[in-house]
Amino acid sequence: MFSTLLTHIGRYLLMLKAMFSKPENFKMYWKEFMTQCYEIGYGSLPIVVIISIFLGAVTTVQTAYQLVSPLVPQATIAQIVRDSMLLELSPTVLSIVLAGVIGSKIASELGNMRVSEQIDALEIMGVSPSAYLVFPKIMASIVVIPCLVVISFVTGIWGGRVAGNFSGVISPNVFDMGVRQNFSSFSVVFALIKAYTFAFLISSISAYFGYNVKGGSLEIGRASTRAVVVSCIMVLLADYILAALLL
Question: Mind listing the pLDDT tens digit for each residue in 123-140?
Answer without folding.
Answer: 787 777 788 888 889 999
